[in-house]
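Any chance you'd type out a single protein's sequence alongside its tokenized fold?
>
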Amino acid sequence: MNSKLSKIRTEYKQGQLDEKNMPDDPFIQFNSWMKDVIDAGIEEPTAMTLATVSKDGRPSARMVLLKALDSNGFVFFTHYNSRKGAELEGNPNVALVFFWKELERQVRIEGRVEKISPEESDEYFATRPLGSQVSAIISPQSKVIPSREYIEERVKKYLDILDGLNQRPQEWGGYRVIPDAVEFWQGRQNRLHDRIRYMRKSDQERWIKERLAP
């Protein structure tokens, strides 16, 4: 065992969670925490880990960005033909993790995904900077490419023929994660962390709150 790693310790002292004082709706609680993160000036506040599972049960995870949130779920965008897109097509069950170390907070989300409407994807794509639009258009995401120069040349060729507005490629768009469970974690001293989980009732409307052991 690496002794230097095993000696790393952090004591969490910044906050606490009491389920009695938390709203009945996890989206209200999440929005409150997101406001705290943004107000604190934390870098990449919307960065989240997305975990997917392939048809043969192999998990994979990567960072993506939260781009929209409403009472139905959490929205992110990607290539439908990427590795994660293929895994989502075969198995819609996913998990998300937000970690904001500066506030000693974590949110874990479990649920399933569905594609958002083409109109919603078009609307978001139109707001992206030109470079991000071009990247979505020319990149065969997750596929093996021969070199960095290969992808840069594709960008150059596309920009040379660019005439007018970019249209969203049909293989790129948004997914909404519809949660079944949302867990809020607040670091506490001596590893006695606060963990409050919201679970959706079978009627798909009501949530129950429960405290988990740290």
The mean pLDDT is 93. The two ends are 25 Å apart (CA to CA). The beta strands are 47-53, 59-65, 68-70, 73-79, 93-100, 105-115, 172-186, 194-200, 207-212.
